[in-house]
Design brief:
204 residues; alpha/beta; Rossmann fold; five-stranded parallel β-sheet; Peptidase_S66_N
């Protein structure tokens, strides 16, 4: 699987909305996220659909969402892409995407989760390119372990990830390494794995 080039200071990150966009009430959070990324030495370009809300279960029309994402991915001006938000109907953009063109383009990092699995998973499976099932742009307003690791992966400084505090189990070393049923909001058991991880961690 091809690994995108690491972000360098001075690079530009595009923010796209292939699913939901960003509401007016979230603009202050977005401003803080941009500020945090700029402090790290990056430029942030917020693309047009991020502020649209005329779509149904998506920021705007599937055609426009697909076009914006395609253009950002093949545009050499951008070295990475972060999604604006999750949503419901990003699947409707897929028939408007040219995955042959994406596969032939220079690989770049795409970071997002939930509905953005439509991009993270297809980049892995159809384009043989690594992606990050990780935070949306608003999450970067708070530089915690999750956002630091996601940015570190894009920078080439983070090569593995582990648990996050909400699901932490302090005495895991005393427990057998088994996989047990997952109950949202409760502690979990740990297993160690190595290899390429594909899929979606979205749960209801």
């Amino acid at each position: 699987m091809r690994k995108p080039a690491s972000l360098q200071k001075g690079d530009t990150i595009a923010v796209v909305a292939p699913s939901f966009g960003i509401r007016k009430e979230e603009h202050a959070i977005l401003a803080q996220a941009i500020k945090n990324l700029e402090k790290k030495g990056y430029h942030v370009d917020i693309l047009e659909n991020v502020f649209k809300s005329d779509g149904l279960g998506i920021s705007t029309s599937p055609e426009s969402c697909a076009q914006e994402l395609m253009e950002a991915y093949v545009n050499p001006q951008y070295q990475a892409i972060i999604s604006a938000s999750g949503g419901e109907l990003m699947c409707e953009t897929l028939s408007h995407m040219d995955f042959v063109q994406l596969k032939n383009a220079s690989p770049k990092w795409f970071c997002g989760f939930s509905d953005n699995t439509n991009m993270t998973f297809t980049l892995n499976t159809l384009c043989d390119v690594m992606s990050i099932y990780g935070p949306h742009i608003l999450d970067f307003a708070l530089m915690n372990k999750c956002t630091r690791e996601a940015l570190g992966m894009m920078q080439g400084t983070c090569h593995h990830t582990s648990d996050y505090p909400y699901y932490s189990l302090d005495d895991f070393a005393k427990k057998p390494k088994i996989i047990t049923a997952y109950h949202h909001g409760q502690k979990v058991d740990y297993v160690q794995m190595k290899g390429v991880l594909l899929g979606d961690a979205w749960m209801y």
